[in-house]
Amino acid sequence: MNKEVPGHLANRLQAALWREAFAALDDGLASVEDINAAIAQGPGLRYALLGPLMIFNLTGGKGGIRAAIEQFGPPIESWWADMQATPSLTGDGDLRDRLIAGVEAEMAGRSLADLERERDQRLVLLLKMLRDTEGAR
After folding, report:
1. Where exactly are the structural domains of the chain?
2. How many CB atoms sit inside 10 A of residue 35's CB?
3. What single-letter DSSP state applies at residue 10?
Protein backbone atom coordinates (compact mmCIF):
# COMPACT_ATOMS: atom_id res chain seq x y z
CA MET A 1 0.00 0.00 0.00
CA ASN A 2 1.10 3.54 -0.61
CA LYS A 3 0.39 4.79 2.89
CA GLU A 4 -0.04 3.47 6.41
CA VAL A 5 -3.57 2.38 7.35
CA PRO A 6 -4.89 -0.44 9.53
CA GLY A 7 -5.01 -3.73 7.66
CA HIS A 8 -3.68 -5.04 4.35
CA LEU A 9 -5.34 -3.78 1.16
CA ALA A 10 -6.86 -7.17 0.30
CA ASN A 11 -8.26 -7.52 3.82
CA ARG A 12 -9.69 -3.99 3.74
CA LEU A 13 -11.46 -4.69 0.43
CA GLN A 14 -12.73 -7.97 1.80
CA ALA A 15 -13.99 -6.23 4.95
CA ALA A 16 -15.91 -3.72 2.80
CA LEU A 17 -17.65 -6.60 1.03
CA TRP A 18 -18.38 -8.31 4.35
CA ARG A 19 -19.84 -5.07 5.70
CA GLU A 20 -22.35 -4.88 2.87
CA ALA A 21 -23.05 -8.63 3.02
CA PHE A 22 -23.73 -8.46 6.76
CA ALA A 23 -25.88 -5.37 6.26
CA ALA A 24 -27.89 -7.17 3.55
CA LEU A 25 -28.53 -10.05 5.94
CA ASP A 26 -29.28 -7.73 8.85
CA ASP A 27 -31.74 -5.70 6.77
CA GLY A 28 -33.51 -8.82 5.48
CA LEU A 29 -32.46 -8.05 1.90
CA ALA A 30 -31.04 -11.54 1.33
CA SER A 31 -30.21 -14.83 3.02
CA VAL A 32 -26.73 -16.16 3.69
CA GLU A 33 -27.19 -18.54 0.75
CA ASP A 34 -28.32 -15.70 -1.54
CA ILE A 35 -25.37 -13.51 -0.58
CA ASN A 36 -22.84 -16.31 -1.10
CA ALA A 37 -24.34 -17.20 -4.49
CA ALA A 38 -24.46 -13.57 -5.62
CA ILE A 39 -20.71 -13.18 -5.13
CA ALA A 40 -19.47 -16.71 -5.93
CA GLN A 41 -21.50 -16.92 -9.14
CA GLY A 42 -21.23 -13.26 -10.08
CA PRO A 43 -18.41 -10.80 -9.55
CA GLY A 44 -16.25 -13.28 -7.65
CA LEU A 45 -15.75 -15.28 -10.84
CA ARG A 46 -14.91 -12.21 -12.88
CA TYR A 47 -12.69 -10.66 -10.18
CA ALA A 48 -10.57 -13.82 -10.05
CA LEU A 49 -9.69 -13.28 -13.70
CA LEU A 50 -8.84 -9.58 -13.92
CA GLY A 51 -9.62 -7.81 -10.64
CA PRO A 52 -12.48 -5.40 -9.92
CA LEU A 53 -11.16 -2.30 -11.66
CA MET A 54 -10.28 -4.04 -14.92
CA ILE A 55 -13.70 -5.70 -14.87
CA PHE A 56 -15.27 -2.26 -14.38
CA ASN A 57 -13.19 -1.10 -17.36
CA LEU A 58 -14.77 -3.87 -19.47
CA THR A 59 -18.22 -2.82 -18.22
CA GLY A 60 -17.88 0.29 -20.40
CA GLY A 61 -17.67 -1.76 -23.59
CA LYS A 62 -15.68 -0.11 -26.38
CA GLY A 63 -15.57 3.10 -24.33
CA GLY A 64 -13.79 1.36 -21.46
CA ILE A 65 -13.50 2.92 -18.02
CA ARG A 66 -14.56 6.38 -19.21
CA ALA A 67 -17.83 5.07 -20.61
CA ALA A 68 -18.40 2.89 -17.52
CA ILE A 69 -17.99 5.88 -15.21
CA GLU A 70 -20.24 8.04 -17.36
CA GLN A 71 -22.99 5.44 -17.65
CA PHE A 72 -22.80 3.70 -14.29
CA GLY A 73 -21.27 6.35 -12.03
CA PRO A 74 -24.56 7.98 -10.99
CA PRO A 75 -26.38 4.74 -10.09
CA ILE A 76 -23.32 3.39 -8.27
CA GLU A 77 -23.07 6.60 -6.25
CA SER A 78 -26.75 6.24 -5.31
CA TRP A 79 -26.07 2.66 -4.14
CA TRP A 80 -23.13 3.92 -2.07
CA ALA A 81 -25.36 6.55 -0.49
CA ASP A 82 -27.74 3.75 0.49
CA MET A 83 -24.89 1.69 2.01
CA GLN A 84 -24.51 3.75 5.16
CA ALA A 85 -25.40 0.95 7.57
CA THR A 86 -22.64 -0.43 9.73
CA PRO A 87 -23.97 -3.71 11.06
CA SER A 88 -22.85 -4.86 14.49
CA LEU A 89 -21.64 -8.38 15.12
CA THR A 90 -21.13 -7.69 18.81
CA GLY A 91 -24.29 -5.76 19.71
CA ASP A 92 -27.59 -6.95 21.11
CA GLY A 93 -29.19 -7.62 17.69
CA ASP A 94 -29.77 -11.04 16.27
CA LEU A 95 -27.50 -10.57 13.22
CA ARG A 96 -24.80 -12.74 14.75
CA ASP A 97 -27.26 -15.57 15.43
CA ARG A 98 -28.82 -15.34 11.95
CA LEU A 99 -25.39 -15.25 10.34
CA ILE A 100 -24.22 -18.34 12.22
CA ALA A 101 -27.47 -20.22 11.55
CA GLY A 102 -27.40 -19.32 7.85
CA VAL A 103 -23.81 -20.41 7.38
CA GLU A 104 -24.39 -23.66 9.29
CA ALA A 105 -27.47 -24.38 7.15
CA GLU A 106 -25.52 -23.77 3.94
CA MET A 107 -22.73 -26.03 5.15
CA ALA A 108 -25.34 -28.81 4.90
CA GLY A 109 -23.46 -31.15 7.20
CA ARG A 110 -20.04 -30.52 5.67
CA SER A 111 -17.25 -30.00 8.17
CA LEU A 112 -14.83 -27.08 8.13
CA ALA A 113 -12.20 -29.54 6.91
CA ASP A 114 -14.51 -30.54 4.03
CA LEU A 115 -14.99 -26.89 3.08
CA GLU A 116 -11.26 -26.18 3.28
CA ARG A 117 -10.53 -29.18 1.06
CA GLU A 118 -13.19 -28.09 -1.46
CA ARG A 119 -11.87 -24.50 -1.47
CA ASP A 120 -8.27 -25.60 -1.86
CA GLN A 121 -9.02 -28.08 -4.68
CA ARG A 122 -10.97 -25.44 -6.60
CA LEU A 123 -8.33 -22.79 -5.94
CA VAL A 124 -5.57 -25.01 -7.29
CA LEU A 125 -7.62 -25.68 -10.43
CA LEU A 126 -8.33 -21.97 -10.85
CA LEU A 127 -4.67 -21.06 -10.40
CA LYS A 128 -3.64 -23.72 -12.94
CA MET A 129 -6.18 -22.38 -15.42
CA LEU A 130 -4.93 -18.83 -14.93
CA ARG A 131 -1.32 -19.98 -15.40
CA ASP A 132 -2.18 -22.06 -18.47
CA THR A 133 -4.07 -19.18 -20.09
CA GLU A 134 -1.52 -16.48 -19.22
CA GLY A 135 -0.41 -16.23 -22.87
CA ALA A 136 -4.02 -15.67 -23.93
CA ARG A 137 -3.78 -12.06 -22.72
Report:
1. 9-109
2. 21
3. H
